[in-house]
């Protein structure tokens, strides 16, 4: 016969937990199963603001010999849901006690909430409201982090998140991008902040495709109305990847390890100014090839348009362009984005075409108006435009597109030319 948590043990309130806490100077510790619990804080930085905007509270346990005990071991100690709830609340109590003593009236405190507690505990967490009232810490300075993993009670989780939001706290999804992560959780819970799992960053460090996926995921989360935090930043290169991905916040050993000496935190800012200056220099270097691409193809491109305006056939007009080894195809579109005539494919591209994508090859009368390069060319005629690398739908390969709108018999037409982003890939 199943029993609810309240049948097993009354919810541990402040009066029950207070005797488990001890104040030593300005710092509080807690006792649990013979272990001493301490608060460690790790700064969270806003890249744009170039400063700390919050701290994640992490529990650190020590035995009687003051030897560190792994957090996993600590959280394996509870034998029942009730004791698990007690430990969770004890940790939160300890963290808020310690954070309330720091002379910081602005930044957030990120608190982890056990999914088991969230789904089995009462949504009306009167304990937490009473705790904030007792310590005087405003709820708007609290970010409740929920670890991203499956739960048997999605509705209870949703209600709990709604409760913390109603209380005035911010909510965050932790470890997004690992394990069972999916955007359905984002849609259901509408968190204020999404913390991306460090495995995404690890993959992006060595894999350009993974880096593009990371950047796309950040963009999607922003469109979903979420701020994005990338955790686990351990190297300078990873910090640059985080900046380039467009995340809002960063956290990790590269900036600062979790610190038990809480009084030192305000005096250890990260040098984000230097990182941003380096990013700007790198960006200029990586953008130069794009500008060089425009400069290099400007002559052949405009000569092709002159021939088209003089009545030459498409194959004659684009002969010079198509002979370049990096050019995969050329095509024309009208002022509505509808393709005129067939696509011209270079000989080298024909030899390397992947037969698996043959259904996508015929683009007669295709509508390209949705493509930014088409709309941009129509908006600024006579200017040669170039895209950033993207996946070409006609062959599922990465390319950049040059486009230029020009007058032909009183109407605008757009000449487009696809260039392989990586000349060694198969178009």
Automatic annotation (TrEMBL):
A single Pfam family, by name? EAL
Coiled coil region boundaries: none
EAL domain boundaries: 20-272
The molecular function terms of the Gene Ontology recorded here are: cyclic-guanylate-specific phosphodiesterase activity
Q: Which InterPro entries match?
A: Cyclic-di-GMP_PDE-like, EAL_dom, EAL_sf, Sensor-like_sf
SUPFAM superfamilies according to UniProt: EAL domain-like (SSF141868), Sensory domain-like (SSF103190)
Give the source's domain of life in one word.
Bacteria
Gene3D superfamilies to which the protein is assigned, alphabetical: EAL domain, PAS domain
The name this protein goes by in its record: EAL domain protein
Lineage of origin:
Bacteria, Pseudomonadati, Pseudomonadota, Gammaproteobacteria, Pseudomonadales
């Amino acid at each position: 016969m199943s029993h609810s948590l309240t049948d097993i043990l009354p919810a541990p309130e402040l009066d029950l937990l207070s005797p488990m806490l001890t104040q030593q100077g300005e710092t509080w510790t807690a006792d649990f199963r013979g272990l001493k619990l301490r608060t460690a804080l790790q700064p969270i930085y806003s890249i744009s603001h170039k400063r700390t905007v919050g701290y994640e509270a992490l529990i650190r346990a020590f035995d009687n010999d003051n030897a560190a005990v792994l957090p996993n071991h600590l959280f394996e100690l509870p034998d029942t849901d009730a004791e698990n709830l007690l430990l969770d609340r004890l940790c939160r109590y300890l963290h808020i006690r310690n954070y309330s003593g720091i002379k910081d009236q602005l930044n957030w405190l990120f608190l982890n909430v056990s999914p088991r507690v969230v789904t089995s505990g009462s949504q009306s967490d009167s304990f937490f409201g009473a705790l904030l009232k007792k310590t005087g810490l405003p709820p708007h300075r609290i970010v409740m982090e929920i670890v991203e993993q499956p739960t048997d009670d999605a509705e209870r989780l949703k209600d709990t998140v709604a409760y913390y939001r109603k209380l005035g706290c911010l909510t965050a999804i932790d470890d997004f991008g690992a394990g069972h992560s999916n955007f359905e959780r984002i849609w259901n819970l509408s968190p204020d902040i999404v913390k991306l799992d460090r495995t995404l960053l690890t993959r992006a460090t060595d894999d350009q495709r993974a880096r593009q996926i990371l950047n796309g995921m950040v963009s999607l989360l922003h469109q979903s109305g979420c701020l994005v935090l990338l955790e686990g930043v351990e190297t300078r290169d990873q910090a640059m990847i985080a900046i380039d991905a467009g995340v809002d916040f960063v956290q990790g050993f590269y900036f600062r390890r979790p610190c038990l000496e809480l009084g030192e935190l305000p005096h250890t800012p990260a040098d984000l100014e230097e990182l941003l200056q380096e990013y700007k220099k790198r960006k200029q270097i990586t953008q130069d090839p794009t500008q060089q691409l425009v400069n290099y193809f400007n002559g052949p491109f405009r000569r092709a348009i002159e021939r088209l305006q003089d009545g030459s056939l498409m194959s004659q007009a684009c002969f010079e362009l198509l002979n370049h080894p990096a050019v995969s195809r050329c095509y024309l579109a009208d002022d509505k984005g509808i393709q005129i005539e067939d696509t011209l494919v270079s000989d080298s591209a024909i030899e390397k075409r992947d037969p698996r994508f043959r259904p996508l090859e015929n683009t007669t009368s295709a509508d390209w108006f949705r493509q930014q390069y088409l709309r941009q060319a129509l908006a600024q005629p006579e200017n040669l435009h170039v895209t950033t690398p993207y996946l070409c739908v006609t062959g599922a390969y990465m390319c950049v597109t040059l486009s230029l709108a020009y007058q032909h018999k009183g109407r605008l037409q757009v000449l487009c030319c696809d260039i392989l982003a990586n000349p060694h890939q198969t178009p």
